Amino acid sequence: KLTWTKFHPLEDIYNYLEHLQSTYSDIVDLITIGKSSEGREMRVIRISSGKSKDMSLKPAIWIDGGIHAREWISPAVALFIIRQLVEHNKSYKNMIDDLDWYILPLANPDGYVYTHTVDRLWRKSRSENEETSGRYFWDQQDCKGVDLNRNWDHRWNEVGASDNPCHETYAGRAPFSEPETRAMSNFIKEHRDRIIIYLTLHSYSQMWLMPWSSTKERHNDYDDLLYMGRKAIESLKKTHGTNYNLVSKQTNSYPISGCSDDWAKSKVGIKYSYTIELRDKGTYGYLLPPTQILPTGKEIFTAIRTLARSVLSNM
Ligand code: 0X9
Ligand code: ZN
């Protein structure tokens, strides 16, 4: 059983997912979509009712957490959402009747373990990088891993990313050079006909971000994403009064490229694609105390339900 009073290590999280699968087998499937570079399983939980019916056309929502290892509130919120949908499935019946939920709480399992055991502020994955060109000074310590939010195949490595393996925003050798981003993107592409919402949970700064990240240009769906995003942050605010800013990712701050939501929108065609930067606004930053897991989880789950309902009723 998980508590919401601490950030759990990977084993607790995987045990909890297995417990849900065996206890709620009518609505839960556990799917291993691939392995990390250190060989850990990448586990997606699928939550959906009416499993026996033909669901080839049932719309789906994808949520990933933990792309960045140190952003511990992200997997915690993903798990809170899973808990609500599964253990309180009667309260959220319409949500799992109308939608297939695909949730990957630990998109970067190796990095997550590393933040629990060695370096609390590690960001990247933990893959081995080759010392290719010798252009960079090779610091033995920090030259492992790839920034899994720079490795996606959309304007890869153009801006706001580094080609230095020792940097925090190293984009990798090539788009999808990493097993983690390959596993996620392949799975998402397999379900591309049904996924209507792509969400990726990060921290921190309390922002609800819309593509694009790499350019100030607006896509044709800009107004629709703004409209649905506004509904989401309004209902979020009603929960505990927390303010989130709804902004296009690029106008907000530094441009970046090769990130997941830009890829989901541009290459897969998932219209409603957002990056959510969770609590807080910098008081604790990545070191958010566990007392904030429940309030953050509640307000984000409310916002996501509002978003899902609004998008579904607009189809
Ligand atoms: O830099 C990232 O990958 C994300 N921020 S984080 O602190 N979680 O690492 C997203 C950045 C948002 N997009 C832009 N700044 N354009
Ligand atoms: Zn992040």
UniProtKB/TrEMBL annotation:
Name of this chain's protein: Peptidase M14 domain-containing protein
Keywords: Carboxypeptidase, Disulfide bond, Hydrolase, Metal-binding, Metalloprotease, Protease, Signal, Zinc
Cofactor: Zn(2+)
Origin organism lineage: Eukaryota, Metazoa, Ecdysozoa, Arthropoda, Hexapoda
GO molecular function per UniProt: metallocarboxypeptidase activity; zinc ion binding
Catalytic residue list: 277
An annotated GO cellular component: extracellular space
Domain Peptidase M14: start-end pairs: 6-311
